[in-house]
Write a structure and sequence with these properties.
The protein is an alpha+beta fold. The chain has a single domain (about 5-85), classed as Glutaredoxin (3-Layer(aba) Sandwich), CATH 3.40.30.10. The chain is built from four helices and four strands. The protein has helices at about 15-25, 40-45, 65-75, 80-85, and strands at about 5-10, 30-35, 55-60, 60-65. The chain has a four-stranded mixed beta sheet with strand order 2-1-3-4, sandwiched between helices. Helix 1 (about 15-25) links the parallel strand 1 and strand 2. The longest helix is centred in the first third of the chain and has 12 residues, at about 15-25. The chain is globular, with a radius of gyration of 12 Å. The termini are close together.
Amino acid sequence: MSDVVIYSRAMCGYCSRAKRLLTAKGVAFEEIDATFDRAKRAEMIERAGGRATYPQVFIGDRHIGGCDELYALDRAGELDLMLQPA
């Protein structure tokens, strides 16, 4: 399975939804809580090409985007393919 990283913040409904989808699919992911960490937030923004909203999801080296993009990939049947081992 590809490595999955999600940058999140406390009290974020979109973050919760994204994590819930990944958990329901049985996906192990690394959560980076950037709530009070400016360095982690800056890292997220840099990795996400300037996007500063939460969450930001990465599968392997690919930037997926936020919660809406993650769910759109799932609805299109593409998320499961992306999560398969390379």
